[in-house]
Amino acid sequence: MKVYALLMLVLAAMAITGCSDPTIDASSEAKMKESVAKVRESLPEAKRSDFDQAVQLIAFSQIDMKSLFANGGADAGDMEGKMRDALNGKTAEQVLAQAEQIQAERKAREKEQALAEIRELVAKREKAEQAKQQLDKFQVVRSRFTMRERQYLGEQPIIELTVKNGTDRAISRAYFSGTIASPDRSVPWHKDQFNYSIPGGLEPGEEASWTLAPNSYSGWGKVDAPADAVFTVMVEKLDGPDGEVLYSTRDFSERDRNRLTELKKQYDVD
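^ thats the sequence. predicted structure below, dont judge the formating
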């Protein structure tokens, strides 16, 4: 009987201790500040930093920044009330548990958005790969880059191209990426995009040679490459007879490629 009585006393003491855990009183600013401090002090030293972060997370989760800026701060009072309500009456453990739940929900939303972005980027990549197959049919037969001296006007950059339209569509404008690089150097001397509106267009099977003169004040006019440098041109986009885009790899940029790689790695997606 003595053992039973002692056990009941222990259980009663545990129940009283559980019920007496301090809670946050958010009925006023002063009481909230005081009660938060008491709740914090009830925790072991190692958990107090987590509690501080949890309080901030719960409070800020009630703030709608978009609405706040849209209304010029008119909703600030309502948001402050929501912040207090979210913390009112909670013990330290309840605060920590709610913060953990908020973080879990946030991570779930972030993953959902990331997976949607991955699907979008994959679709863009596949479309670009299909376009690349058609763009390869528009051949750059010859490409040269030179600087020509002009009397009293300095040097003029010149791009010489010979192309052949191997697609089954007439082309009104072609878009290119040009790179000037030396065989033994990993960094090119210059890389830039340019395009050309084709007078009369280029019909399927036709070949044409063009001499283009980029703006001498652009990056092309600042090129100072050695004699061994090679000018390589890639076709990135083609417009049809009415100016509509037929094929393009520019919709999936290097930034998109890096972003897709990072997201797949972060969320372990093949």
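The radius of gyration is 34 Å.
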